[in-house]
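Recap quiz, item 2
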Amino acid sequence: MNFALTEEQLAVRDAAREFAQTELLPGVIERDENQQFPKEQIKKMGELGFMGMMVDPKYNGGGMDTVSYVLAMEEISKVDASCSVVMSVNNSLVCWGLEKFGTEEQKQKYLTKLASGEKIGAFCLSEPEAGSDATSQRTTAEDKGDHYLLNGTKNWITNGSSASFYIVIAQTDVDKRHKGINALIVEKGMEGFTVGPKENKLGIRGSDTHSLMF
Ligand SMILES: Cc1cc2nc3c(=O)[nH]c(=O)nc-3n(C[C@H](O)[C@H](O)[C@H](O)COP(=O)(O)OP(=O)(O)OC[C@H]3O[C@@H](n4cnc5c(N)ncnc54)[C@H](O)[C@@H]3O)c2cc1C
């Protein structure tokens, strides 16, 4: 097995390193101290293709392999961990799931905007009583025919206020326990959905971590 990086992987790493040094390093301490979301930096990362690196180009992604994605993540994390957590949630937790499990309509409507960085996504699993043991989460989604009624609270959600689209994990069939858990797409501004205040953290303070109420 050949473990050497390919020319393309090396080029991705170098581009991410250059970007991190020139665009992320200036002001990184101030952004962290002021708990300032790196809006401009994330916009540039989207333009350079860092927000949907592994997504199929037909959905505006970069079509790259996982190693390239990890190399870029490493370079960005070295300089600005807030930018890298925004990037990792958007790439891994939101785009990946949508591409693998979403319908074509969902991909056209949401994935194309998330992969290009035009919009940011959030992944909502953790709850006040459910962290590592994700199956004990208690948020429910009741099928009301033409819509689902979501009830619950999610905690520590990265991109909590800056996201436009949220993947929310909920129980659609409580009796089936962990086999009755599903993922729903919630758009910011939908009725009954409230973003709680920003949570204080000891590190990666540029990233906005929030509780969400449904
Ligand atoms: C900055 C930040 C961003 C986050 N972003 C998101 C997000 O975007 N979306 C989201 O859904 N969640 C998010 N989270 C939540 C995160 O995923 C949870 O904190 C994580 O799942 C751990 O859960 P917990 O904090 O409740 O710890 P716990 O589950 O209570 O674990 C506490 C400790 O006990 C250990 N432990 C737990 N169970 C066992 C066991 N059975 N045996 C032995 N040891 C065990 C753990 O390893 C850990 O050391 C974020 C958290 C942080 C801090």
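Helices lie at 7-24, 28-33, 39-47, 66-79, 81-101, 104-115.
The mean pLDDT is 96.
End of item.
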